[in-house]
Amino acid sequence: MTGLKISGLSLLAGSFWVGAIAVPVAAAEPVAPAPVFDLDAATTAPDRLAQTEDAAAVITDVQIEPTSEGFTVVLVSDQPLSAGTSEIVGNALITNIPNATLALTNEAAAEQFSPVEGIALVQVTPLPDGGVQLAITGTDAPPAAQVNAQANNLVFNVVPGIASAVIEDADTIQVVVTATRTEEDVLDVPRSVTVIDREEIQQQRQLTSNLPDILGQLVPGLGPPTLQNRTRNLSLRGRTALILIDGVPQNPNSGFATELNTIDPDLVERIEIVRGPSTVYGDGATGGIINIITRAATEEEFVVDVAARTNVGLTSIEEDSFGYGGQIGIAGNDGRTDLRASLSYDVTNAFFDANGDRIPPNGVADTDRLGLLVKLGHEFTDQQRLGLTYSFYQEDLDNTTFASDPSILAIPGLQTARAIDIGEIDYEKAPAQTNHVVNLTYTHTDLLSSQFDAQLYYRDTELAQRFRDIRQAGRPAFQPQLFQTTLDSSEWGGRLQFDTQFSNRFSLLWGADYGQEENARPIRILDIPTFEATNTLNAVDIGNQTPTYDLETLGLFAQATWDISDQWQLSGGLRYDRFDVAVEDTVLAFRRNVDDIRRGGDIDADDVSFNAGLIYKPVPEIGLFASFSQGFSIPDIGLSAGTRLPTDVNISRDIELEPQQVTNFEVGVRAEFEQLQASLAGFYNESDLGSNLQVGPDGFTDLVRAPQRNYGVEATVDWQPSPVWRLGGYFSWNEGESDNDDDGEFLALSGLQVQPYKVGLYVENDTAPGWKNRLQLLGVGNRDRAFEDGVDAFEIDGYVTLDLLSSVQLGDGTLTVGVQNLLNNQYLPLSSQERVRGTEDRRFAAPGINLSIGYSIEF
């Protein structure tokens, strides 16, 4: 019988192929003289061709009948029909019928939704240049079809794509690693977890390449998008989140909150967010964990993926308002060894607000980004695997002649930052952030009757920021007036863990973590006369914004899980953490008095943290959970031992440098049905000695150590009412207070720590086969509690943004279009509203409406 081949999908009478899996198909009942048509052939016998050339056939009906294997689609016509070219587009099998027109007696036959399980839509449409198109769209995979002619009609024998059965469980059972350091069904985790997969990351990538903004858009409990390259104002449940890349810590103990800008989103497979303090990881995860998992190895022998994109602000289309970027990657697998290498590059030029005014450089605008990921893995045996990953990321922050106008600091009243062209700046040390991560992993699935995992890593972060000119801010003359802040932080460490299964219902995870960090924040004091004469920024001195120090950490942990029954699960564990810090004597650049010297010393602390969780599943799709967890962390040594403390304080004993232990209580419920997924959780946590940020009267950020409590509610819902519609959203609200004077009176936490409530909504539609559209809304509320309590000098005004994202299969690739801030709202993001008291030169407006276009292909 004639063989058929449709864009890599081979069909034969008696079988069809999807990938490498053959599925039997019942041969069509012979109807004399019904020949079998090749879907790649536009015609059959010459006499049939002559018939169809005389006049176009009229299709009057589309009939669908179930069969034992699937269903048939019958195109009813007044003249003989021929099947023309066919192709697979996304999950759709599309066949063109030449020399035909559409005149249905029942218009409802043109679109028939969910005729059988595994099929989303059967649709017939007229083609602009003549002919009719038949599109059969699968829910999870493209269907296979056999075509026969019966009199004047065409009969398609259709079998739904086998991938729908194969991947259904993978879609409904979401697996997470970060929460327990082992693979777990999300319903088996007694705490709130969010997983953002690659498809969602790439979808948001249509709007921005800034990872803090992608997470701020999608994650409940996290602050809203900052529209800057910083996690300041991006707290998780009002506390600090531990940022990991494949388990490697990215947070310097003291830095500039740029730890999320250490990898390009193009190089990310998925992101797992565990909300609430963690005993399992330690390392300062008092707000939770954000684990960025890099691109996975491919199962195919060789794959190449390429992407290109451009974007432009529509409120002021100028030459330097166009941005562009691209990505190229290769991956391969020979069964034992796998390799992936990806390179990405982006140029983000000027941003303009909704009024068409240029926004000064803010760490996202006027920035070049380069990312590289190389992963190599080898399986020595079926039980042993070695992996090596190298990640490089660099942001060049000097892609412009514009700067923030410092003259606004002398203008009475609250000002919005404005851009000024100061000409080409000759930096002695160019503004940039560079991050290197080397990660070596080893897995043995049966060592000492356990799965053994080992990790050895190294991270190096260097940052030089754009210069700042605060000569008009009224600072003391001995403090820097024209300067450039920098960061030099490196860390190496390792993790060892054994996952021991004592039975199919009881397991114990145990192991150790170790890390050693060197941290320094030099400040380059710049030559003012040379700058005024030649726009050259040379350092006349190198000072210190914070003390230089070394930090050593050790953690020992054990975590048990007991599946009491199919409905009940109990888990619990403990972790011992020890911190050792050696601080050098330092002359601080922004010291209170000209002769002040910060005396160094040694700090050591240790403690034990506990956690426990209970899950009850009344039915397999619903899980109710309650948990108790603690997180132990040392504060930001740079800020704590900085200008806030008197210089004669013994830092080895001062309470400002003591660690904090956060105790968290959480209850919630999760539901994972085929067409509906939802969650609801409430939490309360407290610490006898908190660690929160607050803007002081001088405009500088202080670290406040005082009793602290945080609490809130988070809800999510996702609904798929039909195969072509998806909608849902989330709501998160959290609050917090601290007793700054330790007098029993709790005042609201600053807006730097606690962000207002946040609402995210979306609706998605598969508008046509291969064409998907998404409309998403983000609403940020007002908050004035900290202002009324005298903690903040600013109130937070809410705002709403609306974005449109569209993707369409074009050829073998995908064309994407994104429109950010669709309604062109003029607003200040939360990260800008807190910039008062001499920092208004960083009070940046949000970008206005912005258009992005991209194309990606894999082959």
Written overview of the protein:
With 859 residues, the chain is mainly beta. Helices cover 6% and strands 51% of the residues. The protein contains eight helices and 53 strands. The strands form nine sheets. The chain has a 22-stranded antiparallel β-barrel. A five-stranded mixed β-sheet has the order 9-5-6-14-13, with no helix packed on it. Strands 7-8-12-11-10 form a five-stranded antiparallel β-sheet, with no helix packed on it. It is globular. The two termini are 30 Å apart. The N terminus is likely disordered.
Write the layout of secondary structure elements.
Layout: E1 4-6, E2 9-12, E3 15-18, E4 21-24, H1 46-54, E5 57-66, E6 71-77, E7 86-89, E8 92-97, E9 100-102, E10 111-113, E11 119-126, E12 132-138, E13 144-150, E14 153-159, H2 163-172, E15 175-176, E16 184-185, E17 193-197, H3 198-205, H4 211-218, E18 241-245, E19 248-249, E20 268-275, E21 288-294, E22 302-313, E23 322-333, E24 337-348, E25 367-379, E26 384-396, E27 402-404, E28 419-421, E29 426-427, E30 432-447, E31 450-464, E32 468-469, E33 482-501, E34 506-520, E35 522-526, H5 528-534, E36 536-537, E37 539-544, E38 549-563, E39 568-583, E40 601-619, E41 622-633, H6 637-640, E42 660-672, E43 676-687, E44 692-695, E45 701-704, E46 708-722, E47 725-738, E48 747-748, E49 758-768, E50 771-780, H7 785-788, E51 799-810, E52 813-820, H8 830-833, E53 850-858
Parallel strand pairs: 5-9, 18-21, 29-36
Antiparallel strand pairs: 1-2, 2-3, 3-4, 5-6, 6-14, 7-8, 8-12, 10-11, 11-12, 13-14, 15-16, 17-20, 18-19, 20-21, 22-23, 22-53, 23-24, 24-25, 25-26, 26-30, 27-28, 30-31, 31-33, 32-33, 33-34, 33-35, 34-38, 35-37, 38-39, 39-40, 40-41, 41-42, 42-43, 43-46, 44-45, 46-47, 47-48, 47-49, 49-50, 50-51, ...
